[in-house]
Amino acid sequence: MNKENRGQKIFLILAAIFISSLVACNLIFQKFFILDIGPTFFVLSVGILPYPITFLVTDIISEIFGKVKANRVVLSGFFASIFVIFVLMVAERADAVFFSPVDNETFSKVFGLFGPAVFASMTAYLVAQFIDIRIFHFLKDQTDGKHFWLRNNFSTLFSQIIDTASVLILLCIASDLGWSTGLSWDRFLPLFVSSYIFKAAVALIDTPIAYFICSMLRKRYSLKLG
Questions:
Q1: pLDDT tens profile 104-141
Q2: pTM for the full model?
Q3: Which of 133, 139, 142, 186 has minimal Cβ neighbours within 10 Å of its Cβ?
């Protein structure tokens, strides 16, 4: 297998992980839980659990394959999420039979809040991911490709502020307009702080992982495409 084929194979695997993580976020985000850490605790959506993986993957793709392919993966994730929303809309209109393990009411309760919530999530996602990629490559150019830890962390930490604030603001506005989002302005600050601290912690923790994966890909597959 030549270098180009190896690169394409690795790129497709990373893209699949990215898209799967993003779609999973949108499917499970309506469940909230308490993360109890010692003297403090955080209220988080379970959708936040796979979401940091998307930023880790875009940083790896940006580093190895470049800005163009990273942007393509972000857009692919967006269209994949839109397609899943369409499938769920069709599925919700299908009437459940009497022996169905999941009845109409349960299905609608779990997936029926997709309208404003997914609009807010996808808007924040696009803005944050494109900002992340732009900052990553700006810092890469400024440092002549050195200090991966700097661009990996700073791009993610900054873009996550935009992402977290944007989605919560849009959900609160949607609630003010009469949409059932389950969020109000009095919950904005606690959820913002909890979500951002979690995302920032994961971003810092995943730096060694990103280093290892990028190093492994370069050495084992002779990839230096970015």
A1: 988 887 776 556 667 777 788 888 889 999 999 999 89
A2: 0.83
A3: 186
